[in-house]
UniProtKB/TrEMBL annotation:
<dbReference type="InterPro" id="IPR038595">
    <property type="entry name" value="LOR_sf"/>
</dbReference>
<dbReference type="Pfam" id="PF04525">
    <property type="entry name" value="LOR"/>
</dbReference>
<dbReference type="InterPro" id="IPR025659">
    <property type="entry name" value="Tubby-like_C"/>
</dbReference>
<protein>
    <recommendedName>
        <fullName>Protein LURP-one-related 6</fullName>
    </recommendedName>
</protein>
<dbReference type="InterPro" id="IPR007612">
    <property type="entry name" value="LOR"/>
</dbReference>
<comment type="similarity">
    <text>Belongs to the LOR family.</text>
</comment>
Amino acid sequence: MSMIPIISKLYCSSSQTVLEVRKRPHVVNGGGFVVTDCSGQRVVFRVDGCGILGTKGQLILRDGEGDALLLMRRKGGMVEALSIYKKWKGYSLDYEGLQNLVFSLKEPNSCLVRNNGIRISSEPRAANNKGWNFEIRGYFPDRNCSIVDIRGNVIAQVGVNKEVEKLMESKDLYHVVVKPGMDQAFVVGVIAILDYIYGESTYC
């Protein structure tokens, strides 16, 4: 089994991993969400959105200790507004705060590209002809979507426990199944961007 460390091999597991995601209320905690292991006891990641950071189009992924791992930033400006895609950049952060570009995400910005999903390129750029490595399939607000690689293999799946959904009558608690070898921090970073795109807990 090969490891795919996009942020760090520290976040790649040799076995399949189930993460629980719980959205934080804007009113109390400024939004964002907390990611725990499948027992719900140990915090693995936190995501701060613009309700905490105070900057639109910017998200930070932190580890369980609160240290920043990944800065995600949406490009802006007139050129971006006229483009058929909106672009996000993901930068890994080291202990000195230095930024290193690790992935780019393209979000369709026009009905002209409706058939094209949200696509992600890891850095260095994909060597394949398509120019991207991963794609989102399904619809995130329904908590029914997956991240697939260029060959169509599912590397992470977002879902909701049906019993929990009936109890809570909301999709504020859901799970992510990450396949062996895949970088869990990268997967959570992509989910943070999806959360923002669809105007959920990280958006303001």
